[in-house]
TrEMBL record:
Function as written in the Swiss-Prot or TrEMBL entry: Subunit of the oligosaccharyl transferase (OST) complex that catalyzes the initial transfer of a defined glycan (Glc(3)Man(9)GlcNAc(2) in eukaryotes) from the lipid carrier dolichol-pyrophosphate to an asparagine residue within an Asn-X-Ser/Thr consensus motif in nascent polypeptide chains, the first step in protein N-glycosylation. N-glycosylation occurs cotranslationally and the complex associates with the Sec61 complex at the channel-forming translocon complex that mediates protein translocation across the endoplasmic reticulum (ER). All subunits are required for a maximal enzyme activity.
Location relative to the cell: Endoplasmic reticulum membrane
Keywords, alphabetical: Endoplasmic reticulum, Membrane, Signal, Transmembrane, Transmembrane helix
Protein name per its UniProtKB record: Dolichyl-diphosphooligosaccharide--protein glycosyltransferase subunit 2
Family under the similarity heading: Belongs to the SWP1 family.
InterPro entries associated with the record: Ribophorin_II_3rd, Ribophorin_II_C, Swp1
One Gene Ontology cellular component annotation held by this UniProt entry: oligosaccharyltransferase complex
Residue span(s) of domain Ribophorin II third: 1-37
Top-level division of the source organism's lineage: Eukaryota
Membrane spanning stretches: 78-102, 114-131, 143-163
Positions of the Ribophorin II C-terminal domain: 67-165
Gene Ontology biological-process entries: protein N-linked glycosylation
Membrane topology type: Multi-pass membrane protein
Length: 169
């Protein structure tokens, strides 16, 4: 019905070519079959001719993506200073341990101190992995697994130290 579908043709009267296109996603190569070369359609005489209807199916200009310019980075010396500032608390801790004299001989030997220190080191390794590779949800899942032996070994180690202190007193 051309009276109700005139908008599909932009009210442009004239000769049209009728082609049947056959193809879908599963078909490697589709084909076209020209049904008629000269189909005359006429619409209202008062329709305004559209000059852009020929450009409707022409090739559009190529869109070229432009990446954002890289931000300027600070010099390597600035990065080195900030890296040193982050390592400074560890250096202060080691210096203070040397000045007050850390008593490593008071540390009990056994499975619980070894397990506590290994699982504590695993937490620090997990922090590094979170910083470099993991997202928050993966880190929380691994932290839940590592925190169980950390809690158990830590509780056992503190109980051993408290029992040893009571025995001395």
């Amino acid at each position: 019905d051309l009276t109700t579908n005139a908008n599909d043709f932009r009210h442009q009267s004239g000769a049209y070519e009728l082609v049947l296109l056959v193809g879908d996603a599963a078909l490697q190569t589709g084909f076209s079959w020209k049904l008629t070369d000269n189909l005359q359609l006429s619409f209202h005489e008062d329709s305004v001719p559209d000059t852009n209807h020929l450009n409707l199916y022409s090739a559009k200009p190529e869109i070229v993506h432009q990446f954002r310019e890289d931000e300027k980075r600070p010099p390597a010396s600035v990065a080195l200073v900030f890296s040193a500032l982050t390592a400074l608390p560890l250096l202060i801790l080691l210096i203070l341990w040397l000045t007050i004299g850390v008593n490593f001989s008071g540390l009990p030997l056994g499975l619980s101190p070894l397990g506590f220190h290994i699982s504590h080191g695993a937490v620090f390794a997990l922090m590094y992995l979170y910083w470099k590779y993991l997202d928050m949800f993966q880190t929380m899942r691994y932290l839940a697994l590592v925190s169980i032996p950390l809690f158990l070994f830590g509780h056992r180690l503190l109980a051993t130290l408290a029992a040893r202190r009571e025995k001395k007193a």
